[in-house]
User: Which sequence fits this backbone?
């Protein structure tokens, strides 16, 4: 069954005036992504998501169409390998790989629909009927002193027992934000923190020293993704697990980190790391090196669905039935119309878990009226 069409749809959902939010390095004034549509010769459609700036992704489309259109959908991963081998000068860190990621997710969605199987059956089988999530919030805003506490209170009110908050403005600020989050969430909640690579090793150590008393689940992206030796040093020293990976592309990037044992929790984002194609290789690497995985998700409902299928198929090695810390899917609780509106039935957690779709493909249905509202023309 051959691919007859690949299309990219740029999506942009501006945030209300004064409602920008984000991380230690910058704030987002809109949520944006690229919807990928792939059509097979029998009319079967598959959908994916490509990370990054939509206008840049669109520029890659004619080039990639020349390889993907006419290819057999079952052989799509060999097409990707050929593209990378022939155009190795392009590298893999950036929108080029994000585009391949979106196409791969769409191809797996279409293949599942063609065969009448959910994606998790195509990538290893269903290990979990429901996957655990953590609420990703506690964002930095234009007025972080005013806006932080209400965000944490809302996550507690909504019943989230595992959350992640943004830190990284300074070690002193980190200590204050973590202490407040712990007070509101209580002693039994799991709290993770995200620095978004804003620190050097010395600053990361200072921050970790200040917040360790609050039993933090992991410190995410404490350093720049290129600082492999820094991650190695920090992981050896830190009393808190080190997590990273949302800015790493393909299994090759992750291998550089894992070979140095510089990470405790790997966080591939399927919409940029290479889709399920590379995601499976990264998961195998985690099993072989006894490292945990928690996929990064910060885009549309399509990317969330992909993350759910990915974790559902993930082996529990080295555990059997007693899983001390099940793999977590990130569930962004910021204002995000692209997460809530693009799917006719958005995936939402109940009691900290999302049910794994069993319908063919990703098990989602696109709301095309919503796509029309947010499509960039």
Assistant:
């Amino acid at each position: 069954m051959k691919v007859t069409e690949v299309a990219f749809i740029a999506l942009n959902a501006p945030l209300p005036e004064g409602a920008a939010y984000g991380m230690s390095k910058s704030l987002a004034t809109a949520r944006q992504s690229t919807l990928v549509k792939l059509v097979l010769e029998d009319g079967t459609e598959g959908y994916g998501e490509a990370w990054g700036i939509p206008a840049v992704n669109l520029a890659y489309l004619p080039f990639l169409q020349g390889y993907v259109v006419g290819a057999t959908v079952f052989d799509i991963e060999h097409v990707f390998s050929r593209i990378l081998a022939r155009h190795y000068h392009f590298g893999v860190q950036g929108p080029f790989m994000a585009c391949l990621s979106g196409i791969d997710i769409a191809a797996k969605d279409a293949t599942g629909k063609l065969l009448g199987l959910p994606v998790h059956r195509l990538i290893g089988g269903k290990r979990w009927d429901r996957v655990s999530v953590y609420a990703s919030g506690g964002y930095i805003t234009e007025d972080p002193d005013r806006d932080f506490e209400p965000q944490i209170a809302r996550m507690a009110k909504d019943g989230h027992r595992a959350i992640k908050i943004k830190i990284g403005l300074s070690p002193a600020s980190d200590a204050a934000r973590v202490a407040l989050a712990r007070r509101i969430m209580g002693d039994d909640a799991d709290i993770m923190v995200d620095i978004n690579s804003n620190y050097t090793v010395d600053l990361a150590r200072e921050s970790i020293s200040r917040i360790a008393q609050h039993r933090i689940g992991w410190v995410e992206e404490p350093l720049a993704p290129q600082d492999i030796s820094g991650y190695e040093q920090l992981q050896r020293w830190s009393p808190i697990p080190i997590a990273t990976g949302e800015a790493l592309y393909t299994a090759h990037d992750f291998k550089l980190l894992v070979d140095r044992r510089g990470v405790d929790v790997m966080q591939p984002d399927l919409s940029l790391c290479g889709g399920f194609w590379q995601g499976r290789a990264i998961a195998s690497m985690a099993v072989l090196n006894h490292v945990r995985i928690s996929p990064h998700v910060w885009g549309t409902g399509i990317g969330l669905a992909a993350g759910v299928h990915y974790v559902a198929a993930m082996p529990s090695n080295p555990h059997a039935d007693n899983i001390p810390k099940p793999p977590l899917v990130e569930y962004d609780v910021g204002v995000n119309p692209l997460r809530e509106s693009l799917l006719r039935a958005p995936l939402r957690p109940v009691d900290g878990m999302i049910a794994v779709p069993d319908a063919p493909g990703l098990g989602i249905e696109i709301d095309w009226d919503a796509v029309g509202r947010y499509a960039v023309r």
Summary: The CA atoms of residues 8 and 61 lie 7 Å apart.
